[in-house]
Amino acid sequence: MDDSSVSGDGRTRPHPIETWPVTGQKEPAVSDVDALISEALVAARGSDVRLAERQLDRLVVGEPAAVEAALFGRAVRAVGRLWPRGWQPVDVARIVTRRAGVRPARLLADVLAADRRGHATAPTWWDEQLAALDARVWWADDARHLADWMARERLDRVTALREAVEVLAVLDGLPPVAVLRPPPGANPGTAPPGPSGSRMLDRVRALLAKAESTGYPAEAEALTAKAQELMARHSIDRVLLDAGPVDRPAGVRLGTDAPYAGAKALLVQEVAAANRCEAVWSDDLGFSTVLGYPADLEAVELLYTSLLVQATAAMLRGRGERRRTSSRRTREYDDAFLHAYALRIGERLREATDRTSREAASAEGGDRLLPVLASRSEAVRQRVETLFPGVTQGRMTIRDAEGWSSGTAAADRAVLDAGAPPRRLRDGRRSGARPTR
Fold first, then answer.
1. Is the pLDDT of residue 133 over 90?
2. Spatial CA neighbour of 186 closest among 107, 275, 86
3. Quick one: 246 and 364 in the same domain?
């Protein structure tokens, strides 16, 4: 298993507060609603389940319109406080889904849509994230949103209030993270451009779609290698077209949830390194932050998403073959398989990038291209040091030699141009230090 395992939901567990029983108490006044919500949130983040249910009961017996309006308004204000602290809509949606569930994440999408109405303008990428989350205003009145949401989801009031409190508890408990892009209302001077929409990236997406759908591992890897070459060429073309000074690197966050979070984080790191980016894994929050330049970040996002599908399919095929010859547990096998697959795929992607870079330097003149690439790599490293001054290196531990061998073989089936030999540790295993927070 990977030594850097996910550390639970990452939320603090404050000592439960004392309260009075529900039986016989009077219906709370409207002015008390915010206090009741605050107490319910503290209880929800605690470990006393009975206390949490008692505090929820106090909300249930409250005046419906006042409680529901206060909950929704408080959630909208909570997400608004997250934007200057580095969070983006997709990040918040990912962690709410992880900690609260799919249906509460749909409630969050409504909260995000309501928050967007409070901004006269927003960056294009922000609205694209909201559109991807289907965050849109479909209700008529914010004060009645929760009642409308209950009807839409066919929920009873107790369940709806419980899930609203859970969402708010997640939002209130999120720590600050690195600010990768200026949120709405901030100085947009360093905001990266949106997707380029180039024909080359359309070709890349088509190649990766074929790689995901084919049943032949060799064909999948050949298509992926070709996609990497095209993206490397696209990145170099963007470098050559940028005549101005080198701008500050941007960043994206990619999900690395369980199971096999460490292997997913390693895959992010390998894909990032092949595209001149740096990755930092926040295992407690379930994502890796990738820093680099826009064209390179586009490549990392596309490749990681596709390779995760391909790696999972290859792992399942390997697991099926293993069951015919062994009755041992599969979790350690799967973990070793995915780690080995990530490292070997990373080597092959770097080979494709290096080959494309050499060809471009020969065609364009190395004295023009190579210094720019070097300065960009240095800028990315400096950006990592600025945003993550406490970053540490973690070591992975592999406990299933069969899974490691199968994962490496699965990534080696395609015959591509020969590259540098694989790096190895003294004990014969491939090296794979993991950056973590």
1. yes
2. 86
3. yes
CA-to-CA dists, residue 71 to 49, 78, 145, 343, angstroms: 21, 10, 10, 46
Q: What is the mean pLDDT of residues 39-59?
A: 93
Q: What's the per-residue H, E or C state across 364-408?
A: HCHHHHHHHHHHHHHHHHHHHHHHCCCCEEECECCCCHHHHHHHH
Q: What is the DSSP letter of 277?
A: -
Provide the 10 A C-beta neighbour count for residue 130: 20
Regarding whether 239 and 150 lie in a shared domain, the answer is no
Residue finishing a domain among 119, 138, 172: 172
Is residue 6 included in any domain, yes or no?
no
State residue 194's pLDDT score: 47
Higher-pLDDT residue of 4, 197:
197
Does 371 map to a domain? yes
What percent of the chain has a predicted confidence (pLDDT) above 70?
A: 75
Residues 247 and 114 in one domain: no
**Could you identify the residue written with the tokens 């927070």?**
437
Is 321 or 128 the better-scoring residue by pLDDT? Answer: 128
Domain identity same for 278 and 374? yes
Q: Are residues 168 and 315 in the same domain?
A: no
Sign of the CA dihedral running 163, 169, 172, 174? negative
How far, in Å, CA of 93 to CA of 238, rounded? 32
Show the domain range for 208: 194-436
CB 82 within 8 A of CB 92: yes
What pLDDT band is residue 383 in, cutting at 50, 70 and 90?
Answer: very high
